[in-house]
Amino acid sequence: MKKFSVEKGNAPYAVAVLLSGCWIYLTRHQYAYTQFPLTLAGSKLFPFVAWSVSLILLFSLYRSIERHLQRPFLITVLCYWILLILLEAVAYNVLGIRNAGTEAYRGLPLCECLHAPLWMQAGYFLMGPLYLLCVDAMRRLTSRHSAQSTTPSANI
Predict the structure, then answer these.
(1) Dmax over Cα atoms in the chain, in whole Å?
(2) Of 121, 128, 11, 140, which Cα lies nearest the Cα of 58?
(3) CA–CA separation, 51 and 30 (whole Å)
(4) What is the pLDDT, as a whole number, of residue 5?
(5) Residue 30 near residue 102, CB atoms below 8 Å
(6) Residue 118: alpha-carbon gap to chain centroid
(7) Over the range 23-55, which residues count as b (16 or more CB within 10 Å of their CB) and which as e?
């Protein structure tokens, strides 16, 4: 049977899907995209797929930054926030993607995007750092577990 390994890339995908699923479940009554009507278990598929793919791409960005720069977490989070605002602004203002479930809320100042309750806006900004922290914790646990499994047992 194939082992579940963070380094082989399985865990970041699983964590992305799990976090995206939890977020979409918790916010399922907030999403009402008329352009993307597909649902799964009462939750919209568009935000679930968008979050899952975005988080996986965020991990790829983190791994690239980690190889070349110091403080990869901080730099990746700053990049995530910038890309979040940029992509949300393009989706809303250029592509015309609107969430009818939250359109009554004010967007972020200057960029006219992220129309949602304040708690949901905070969730958008916290999702990336939370994901990176979860994946990092899994990487640490995996490396600790593999170090223990390669050390000979004292009881033998």
Answers:
(1) 67
(2) 128
(3) 15
(4) 46
(5) yes
(6) 18
(7) bbeebbebbebeeeeeeeeebbebbbebbbebb
Mean pLDDT of 117-130: 97
Q: Which pLDDT band, with edges at 50, 70 and 90, does 156 fall under? A: very low
Report which residue type is found at 90.
V
Q: Which two tokens stand for residue 77?
A: 């989070």
44 membership: H or E segment, kind and range: strand 43-44
| CA of residue 27 relative to chain centroid, distance | 15
Side-chain half-sphere CA neighbours of 138 within 13 A: 20
Non-local CB neighbours of 100 within 8 Å, separated by 6+ positions? 32, 33, 34
Among residues 10, 43, 15, the alpha carbon closest in space to that of 135 is found at: 15
CB atoms < 10 A from the CB of 149, how many? 8
CA distance 143 to 149: 10
Q: How many helices (H) and strands (E) does the chain have?
A: 4, 2
Under 8 Å between Cβ of 113 and 85:
yes
**Residue ranges of domains in the chain:** 10-141
Q: Are 44 and 33 in contact (CB under 8 A)?
A: yes
Mean pLDDT of 113-141: 94
- Which residues on adjacent β-strands are paired with residue 92? none
